[in-house]
Amino acid sequence: ARDSAREFDKARNGPNPCVDCVHSVPDGRGHGCPWTIGAMFQDVPGWTVRRYRREGKEAVQILHCPMFERG
User: What is the pTM of this model?
Assistant: First the structure.
């Protein structure tokens, strides 16, 4: 089913825990996560997300990530 434009935009532009996470940017000190390493966008094991699809695009709203570490 196609999601509404409002739902899609909320997921794409809403709060995102990755912004405050030490693992959001891969570096030589072991930081990084499956979502960001190599820009492969692989699901993080154990996370809780909502996926929205609209016009062939996908937005992922991250509700909980077990790798989250404020940094």
Answer: 0.70
